[in-house]
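Course assignment 3, question 2. Fill in each field.
Student: A.L.
Task: Predict the tertiary structure for the chain below.
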Amino acid sequence: IWSHLARADERGTGGPATTAHQVELFTEAVERAAQLGAEAEVRHLANSAGTLWHPASHFDVVRPGIALYGLAPDGSDPAALGLVPAMCLEAELIAVKDVPAGTPVSYGGTATVGPTRLGVVPLGYADGIPRQASGQGAWVSVAGVRAEVVGRVCMDQFVVDLGRDSDAAPGDTAVLFGAGEGHPRADHWARAAGTINYTITTQLGARVPREQS
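Answer field:
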């Protein structure tokens, strides 16, 4: 017998009380089923948030989801929970260009930069990179240096500001998210796009090659 927790990831007002009530209702349902002759061989209720923060929801087994990716279900720092991000998204810069002051970037010219060096990352919203993150502080890491997304995310690419003194070149790796010091996490992209880390990790398109290690 199983069910699912609706607000276990909300550690503030309302979440803990709602979760405790769900645990009570689930326990009552299991007991009622047993009275009717349906003895549960396995009882499971806890998702990632239940596994991490609500021991009373553990029952016989737990079924973590986003925690298996090494991410916190509430978007907080996974390191504080002993989690390490297991998924990395990266791409090689396909172009680099030094531009003067007042240079508009991408569709609509919504961002104006310079003097600086820009880099083009060959991933876009057709690959699952959220267009909503345009101009919202999303960033990548190039050689351990933060490079913010500038202008609108396009279908097949987006532009990053590498900095005026950057020596980045085509072929250098841009890390969109992953483990390690100095790299953004899926959580950072989620906040920039006004969504949750689940969305960022599950919406990558078929054009993005997968490698397992």
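Instructor remarks: Residues 1 and 43 are 5 Å apart (CA to CA). The chain has a mean pLDDT of 96.
Grade: pending
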